[in-house]
Amino acid sequence: MESELTALVGLAASAVISGMATAGWESAQRAMGELWRRVHPERADTVLAELGEARADVLVARRDGDEQAERELVGEWQTRLRRLLAAHPEMVPELRRMVDELLPVAEDAEPRTGGPRLTANASGRSRITLAGRDINISKG
Fold first, then answer.
1. Separation of alpha carbons 106 and 43, rounded Å
2. If we measure between CA atoms, which residue out of 1, 6, 3, 2 comes closest to residue 82?
3. Closest Cα partner for 84 from 20, 39, 51?
4. How far apart are CA 59 and CA 48, in angstroms?
5. Three-class HEC string of the chain
6. Of 8-22, 48-62, 81-95, 121-135, the least confident
7. Which is nearest to 29 in space by CA: 15, 39, 40?
8. pLDDT confidence of 101, banded at 50, 70, 90?
9. What is the pTM of this model?
């Protein structure tokens, strides 16, 4: 279950950061505001202001082709979301709903590079292995 939550948090952070640089900015801002208002209403305005600062950073990173800066922003928001869920596990369904809402917007954004795009969906006890190049899998 822990790896599932880690994946969810990573996906949510990526969708939020990607949405910031696209027409999905308002959806990302609204979704994050709603999430924080439900558990920390006193901090929601601060989080939204920080999200606005992060948006400015994402736009500069995209303009400059600075993928590292964008990855760092994803990591920062991933940490925030992980802490939020650790303190409020009842918010997992809300975060899943947010991902469902934001992911299509992020996926519709123009890709920054012409590299491969890997997508996978799993449920239950499924196992997914994605590789951009060589892969060796052995069961032992």
1. 26
2. 6
3. 39
4. 16
5. CHHHHHHHHHHHHHHHHHHHCCCCHHHHHHHHHHHHHHHCCCCHHHHHHHHHHHHHHHHHHHHHCCHHHHHHHHHHHHHHHHHHHHHCHHHHHHHHHHHHHHHHHHHHCCCCCCCCCCCCCCCCCCCCCCCCCCCCCCCC
6. 121-135
7. 15
8. confident
9. 0.71
Lowest mean pLDDT among 40-49, 81-90, 108-117: 108-117
62 Cβ contact list (under 8 Å, min separation 6): 21, 70, 112
Question: Phi first, then psi: what are they for 67, rounded to 5°?
Answer: -65, -30
Contact 11, 99 (CB under 8 A): yes
Length of the chain: 140
Structure-token match 């305005």, residue found: 45
